[in-house]
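help with this.
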Amino acid sequence: MRLATWNVNSVRARSERISAWLERSDVDVVAMQETKCRDDQFPMSVFTDLGYEVAHHGLSQWNGVAVASRVGLEQVEIGFPDQPGWGDPPESEARAIGATCGGVRVWSLYIPNGREIDDPHYQYKLRWLEALRTAGTSWIAADDAPPVALCGDFNIAPQDDDVWDMAAFEGKTHVTEPERAAFNALEGAGFTDVVRPHTPGPGVYTYWDYKQLSFPKRMGMRIDFVLGSPAFAAMVTEARIDREERKGKGASDHAPVLVDLE
C-alpha cells in the first residue's frame, strides 16, 4: 500500500493538479490538509472518478482535512477525544479526521500554526498537540490496535536542519523549544517519523513559502510528517518527498510526502 500526506492549500483551486498527481503517483491513500472548503463544496468527483472513497471535514474557507482511499474507508471519525477548540467560546476547528484504510488507521491532521509566540494561538497549538499526544497514546495501547499513522502538516520544524536558516526564525514559531518538545512527546508516546530515515537532511524540505522566490532559492522547511505507531513503522519499506509537485503554475506551497508499506 502507498500512503501520502499533502497540504493541498485549497482542494478546489488545485483539483486538476491533484487529479493528475493521483494518476501518476499510484497512491492508495492520501491524507489532505487545508482543503479550504465546506463539505458541500468539496470536489468529490475528482476522487470518485479515479476510484477513491473520500471522508472530508470542512466548516468554512479555512482549514479542512480529508482522507481519500481506494483500499477501503471505514470507521470515519471527526476530531479526536478532547481536541481543543479555538475562539470565545472555543469551537472545534476542521483540523482532524481519521479513517481505517486497508487495515491502517489513518489520521489527517492540520496542527494550528501558532502565529506568534505571544499570540493566544501559540498556546492553543501547544494544547492541541498535548491532546493529540494523549489520544495517540491510547490508540497505541488499545487492545488489538491497528497500525496508526499520524499524517499531516505539523507546523513544527523539529530539528535545526529542518529550516534553511535558523537565524531567520529567531523569536518566531515553528522552531521554539515548547513546540519541539510537543513533537518529541509524540515520539515519546511511541510514534516514529518514518520518512526521515529515507530522506535525510539537511536541506530536505516539504514546504516553501510563495514569497521571495523561496522555492528556487531553497528556502524551505520540513514541517509535513508521517508519524507511525510501532506496528505501522514496521511495515514501511520506502518513503520520499515529491519535490517536483511543488514546481510549476498553480502548485501548493507544500510537497506531497509518500510512504510505501509492505
